[in-house]
Amino acid sequence: MGSTTGPKANGGIPKTMKALQYSKPKDFAVVEIDVPSIGEEDVLVKIEACGVCGTDLHYHKGEFMAKYPLIPGHEAVGTVVAVGRNVKSIAVGQRIAADPMEPCRNCFYCIRGQTLLCENMTGYGGNVPGGFAEYCRYPARHVTAIGDLPALEAVLIEPAACATHGIERMAPKVGSTVLLFGCGPTGMLLAQLLKLNGTANLTIASKPGPKLDLAKRLNLADSFIAISDTNAKEDLDALLKSNPHGFDIVVEATGAPSVLEQSIFYVRKGGTLVVYGVYDDAAKIAWPPMRIWTYEITILSSFCSTLKFPVVMEYVRTKKIDFRGIVTKTYRIEEWAECLEALEKQRFVKAAIVFD
């Protein structure tokens, strides 16, 4: 096992493992490959579960940072089964969640402290093997102990970390009114954090269905607006009529370019529009510059996160953020085609790949 040594290595580790692997965009299979070796600063993790994310659809199509052959999975949790010679922060047997974004720490942005903008970012489940496999290697500094947090809750630590970065980017003022378009899993986590960080009045606008129903059951917002496919214009007009001055902050978290394009008309003067969703590479939108100028609208984006897992765990330990009930479906890697179809058709709130 690479640089593992004596008592730090688990003798029960097999030589090979099953993994879901892409050879090129849209071409995947379950394969048997070698269990990863690890370096002196790494850990080997036996994967319990790995969340399925909309970003996985982009990797499926060859977008974002996809590099082939590719083992997807960037929301992984599991148990440490081996550690490198120099690892002191985590021990064999501990359950962890893995932060998938590893900056190079040497590029133009990294040396200026902007590690999330790294020019040479390593993305586990993107351009190096990720958590849709029985085992995965991670740098020890990128894993966070999760104790006895159930795996199907712990897979939400990564999207919650992205949400914490989003909160830092938008920096809501105390007493803010916020409109959140979309209540997928990330939107649900963002809603909880918004209410903990300055938001006095939160409105969620989303298509009707299981996600909006769950958001209501979890009481994630002060008001909920169902935007139907058949009467979307009427529903959105009613939303604007009931909020004639718009909102301090509007967050677009659906990943739909058409929604993003319309979102700017719900931002009040002096307000902020947050581009939070993940869009197809080819997507383009049009905004009226005069509206942005005369309203002095700030437009900002929030791109994933790195090294925010300990922050999320503080919210978890103090029971201020709730992951329960968000994962509603599980699959094996052999069922990936079925999972992909369900993801595209939004048949579940959140899914996870699980292992024995």
TrEMBL record:
Pfam families per record: ADH_N (PF08240), ADH_zinc_N (PF00107)
Start and end residues of each Alcohol dehydrogenase-like N-terminal domain: 39-146
InterPro entries according to UniProt: ADH-like_C, ADH-like_N, ADH_Zn_CS, GroES-like_sf, NAD(P)-bd_dom_sf, Zn_alcohol_dh
Domain of life: Eukaryota
Domain (Alcohol dehydrogenase-like C-terminal) ranges: 185-313
Keyword presence, DNA-binding: no
Cofactor needs: Zn(2+)
Keywords from the named record: Metal-binding, Oxidoreductase, Zinc
GO molecular function terms noted in the UniProt entry: oxidoreductase activity; zinc ion binding
Family designation: Belongs to the zinc-containing alcohol dehydrogenase family.
PANTHER family: L-THREONINE 3-DEHYDROGENASE
Name of protein: Enoyl reductase (ER) domain-containing protein
